[in-house]
Amino acid sequence: MPKKKTTTLFEDSLAELELLVNQLEQGDISLEESLKSFERGVTLTRTCQKALQEAEQKVQILLEKNGTQTLEPFTDE
Fold first, then answer.
1. What share of the chain is helix, strand, coil (3-state, %, to 5)?
2. What is the C-alpha separation between 23 and 68, in angstroms, rounded?
3. For residue 17, how many other CB atoms are within 10 A of its CB?
4. Distance between CA 38 and CA 42 in Å, rounded?
5. What is the structure's pLDDT at 26?
6. What phi and psi, each to the nearest 5 degrees, are found at residue 59?
7. Domain residue spans of the chain
8. CATH superfamily of this structure's domain 2-66
9. How distant is the alpha carbon of residue 23 from its chain centre?
10. What 3-state class would DSSP assign to 38?
11. Strand pairing of 64-65 and 68-69?
């Protein structure tokens, strides 16, 4: 199931990114560890952005009718 894998990848990446941000904000790690965490955070951010772009493209495809995009009202059903 690619959908589940993408969702899990996004959620896992976001959770790891949140942990890294918390560690960096606390300031209890060395400069070298901070730089490694920052680099990892950049990678995770790119992964999350890619997953969000893919989701947006899927939504746009689903909303496209007769070659034109139409806005659909959101219903919470």
1. 75, 5, 20
2. 46
3. 19
4. 6
5. 95
6. -65, -45
7. 2-66
8. Exonuclease VII, small subunit (1.10.287.1040)
9. 19
10. helix
11. antiparallel
